[in-house]
């Protein structure tokens, strides 16, 4: 469950398989000429060559790139700089470059003494567990609803989809009370990773994505496998899942990103500092540790997802194009 | 019974088990419980008491509710002013980029991958109200007087929106880019035959083609911003003088901020009111996506 | 449906049990496998320095050595109004935890604390407590649910280095509020830092407004029989807010940051960004442990009180209480811990010496000014016992330690103090963030709002 993002009230504009690549992100050298393979844009080749329009457009692009770099990259570069500076430098002249030298110790202090390493591990564990629970619920549920199709399936599917209309905020208090005193087991889940992992699974959007994708897979494949003697489990594991890589990727990115960003829910249910993720722990620490160490801790916390993004850029942007607004 | 099992009824159930358990315990049951709790007085110590509409009365007579609704609406409004046209202009321009388009979208999307808490704590430093603060230093370069940012009721909300827009705009840009790629090139060819300029092509071809996406992002943004919590909670705690208290922050305060025990009834009552409002919006959203994706 | 539910229950239970063992969260066992009584106690505030945690761990070892049947787990903890309830409701409070005096009665009334009367009586010094202080943790019928562990009076914290830089004598802190104002202006002018700052968030704004109001002769509540009346709209409060308004907007001596809570104002003070602020007399411990303040910077003065019989110094304190969910064995063990860690040192020399020695060896503050929770003589005796170990700059606190005896101490408002403080936060923030704030209107509105809180009970 996510409290920070707009909540589960979101469905992608396109939810059918396979997700088309809406934002091709060509690598540096490869040009994508507007007139290649009919893939032209608003501006025609003739206009590109025109001295006025073409120049203006190039100028606009240059301004845009500079603007994007200043706004998108600038703050992060500043953060890196500040995390290597002395507190007093950052306070007195935040825009100066290392007036009294570089302070490498901040990063080490943040990592080991402030225990960013521990909170980072907790963030990873929370994200990984939420991801796994979401994947299990979405794939098994989607498989049963789309392929096995029990008679009560439509009712169940409707019940799942109806939760899309209930914003996360309604769940805040009753879900919290449920976690304190869960039915069936009677032991409080507070201060346990399960308090975050399990509610994360109740994500109707994932079920919807998975079911729609499975719906569109050719049924003959499943029939053939069944005639060959494969049981439902075997069909699920050896036929369905291998065919579903694209949608699993999309769900995974969503799951990981939301879990990494979640704040209010882990704040409520993880009170023990030793199991808190970075998002919960950093605001507490910000109230006591020195500024340079805090900024170093922020740098570490920001650079890891940024690095992941740069490596898996295409997957990230494809998911974002599919439903970027999910991240509000 | 046996034939039911042989026909796969049991294994189907087993496959549905994770879904049913997880949704049952962590979604359906809490939703029902929210409805029940909104007409009860619950403090977790003594047994809940039925109180009828009393919780709703508490909420609607709370002078803070008006403030919170106004603030939330104000946040949503200026978030639209900042966060709606800028990504659109950027996306239209970016769709025409011929070299390094990947660089453009990567840089635009970068703030979105920064964890929100990290972004807020970083921007809190940017918003240092002293003349030596980062933003005030930059403003000083162009001769603008230092601003109070988060420390004044007049500028606090604007400052929250600025950060929120920075953190979210990249996502909107990528959605628009996706939609722009899907505009059929023949439409531009046809427009050129009629002698349309670049400007007219944007106005008469591109924007009408984006109408569906624009509506959807509009509603999504309103749904998202009416639940804003993180920014006011971490930046200002609702201050100064309640100028940034939002509906969700008020719900949180009802439930958790009195040190002698929370008012869970009022909290759930207010969250249900907000939910009805959001459900109406999302119903609208579903209608629009349906008509849009079939058109 | 039956067939769905049963396996569902089994699977859910199995999943959860697996999680429990995997990350040791969840339930709180009352005994360890070796049959010891397990209790959880409050350690230090988040972000304290490692040496402070080391010293604390050493004290835990001493306690466990003396009580081999008790197993102590520690938990980092800081009481703030807005975070306490989530812990209370979530059942994540330690077996022994601390709350301010203001919340003792309310928590007792709501049945949230364990009755520890018998265990406390066994300690043998219950009759030595200052009766008024002990009453903050007692129920109406005289049962003991919480024990006072320390009491503070609010003092004026000031930065000696900034005083010097501003051309002020650090050994002559201000003695009137007019002096506070002119000193603050001088500091702001000559050093560029905030001359004076005030807490405004998480109920601390109301706490400090009440302190200043007391100091100027006002009171926030009046009690007749069992009726409590809000008197927020009083001349003292008005004078207090007008002073803040003048310093903030006419003199420009309060800096630009108006959103401070307890932690962040300490943080900025230790970083040399604040000349003076009001804070508890015992805050030095936290300034040292959490914020690493340079001891040479630190000065503590007695709070100036306006002339007149009505002015008073706001004092408060901390109660140690035992979780209502604790088993009888845990309650007994918890009370032993309260004796060992918080109270025994005041009445037994060996305990006092051991405590002071352990702290001093890790360079943790010993000898911070406190107000008596027992009688005056007991505190004097205690101060003598620990004298060899005192390592805080007591000389820089002499204005407080000497001046406090002449001051009229006044307790915090008797009813719903924290909720009232929350209402007053807004008033203080409005005055400090809006140059055109209408003090009369704000006070009238706050008075009505507080009355509503009081009437709701």
Automatic annotation (TrEMBL), chain C:
**N-terminal signal peptide:** 1-24
Q: Spell out the Pfam families in the cross-references.
A: SBP_bac_8 (PF13416)
Q: Could you name the domain of life of the organism this protein comes from?
A: Bacteria
Q: Which SUPFAM superfamilies match?
A: Periplasmic binding protein-like II
Q: Supply the alphabetized keyword list.
A: Signal
| PROSITE patterns per the UniProt record, alphabetical | PROKAR_LIPOPROTEIN (PS51257)
- Protein name as catalogued: Extracellular solute-binding protein
What species was this sequence derived from? Pseudonocardia humida
Taxonomic path = Bacteria, Bacillati, Actinomycetota, Actinomycetes, Pseudonocardiales
